[in-house]
Amino acid sequence: MKPPLVVMAVVITARRNVMSSFGYHAHVAGLLFFMALTADANAQDGHRMSPGGPGHSGSTATPAMPMSAQERAEKRFPQPVRVGDLTGRLVLEPSNHQTVIGRVAGVARTGDAIRLVVRYGGLLGFGTRTIAVPIEATALLGQFVQVVDLNADQLRALPDWAASAGVPIDAEDRIRIGLNRN
Question: Which among 144, 150, 127, 141 has a CA at the least distance from the CA of 90?
Fold first, then answer.
């Protein structure tokens, strides 16, 4: 049998008054308390979640083949960008610190590959060297270019760039570069 409509209205009104008097924090605290009790009960009963979730046997499948640099770059939603808009941008290191490690000096084509020519390292212009970073290893992060697929050691190991090693791409041409949402 359903309760009369008047009784339901009184219950709803009473619940609203309780919410306004106790406020949001009391409900959150109650929810956390309930979750803690439930977790305690599950742990005592020996119920454990396997890493794969409910119904997962715990055995791991063979790991997937690592993606190539090109496949990783495609997952960053490459966008067309005018080369002239990249020139002069600051380049960030491949870590969460986002320290500036250089500046884009230009873009060049070497065979089928496109490379960002970067003035790398140094202090106040002294000790700077020019390197070529594969476009697949970079992404736009706001007004910056961030190296995403090379670590600091790999960047240091890149050879010095010689202008004769590639063909410069005109500032009005467009290339595709991925986006980073760090």
Answer: 144
CA 126/CA 130 separation, integer angstroms: 12
Q: What is the pTM of this model?
A: 0.58
Q: How far apart are CA 129 and CA 158, in angstroms?
A: 10
d(CA 167, CA 169): 6
Contact 78, 70 (CB under 8 A): no
Q: Which superfamily does 69-179 belong to?
A: PRC-barrel domain (2.30.30.240)
Q: What is the pLDDT of residues 33-87, one digit of tens each?
A: 555 555 544 444 444 444 444 444 444 555 566 755 555 656 666 889 999 999 9
In total, the chain counts a number of residues equal to 182
Per domain, the residue ranges of the chain are 1-48, 69-179
Residue whose tokens read 């190296």: 147
| Residues 6+ positions from 30 with CB-CB distance below 8 Å | none
- The Cβ of residue 152 has, within 10 Å, a number of other Cβ atoms equal to 13
84-116 per-position pLDDT tens digit: 999 999 999 887 778 899 999 999 999 889 999
**What is the Cα–Cα distance from 114 to 176, expressed in whole angstroms?**
10
How many other C-beta atoms are found inside a 10 Å radius of the C-beta of residue 160? Answer: 10
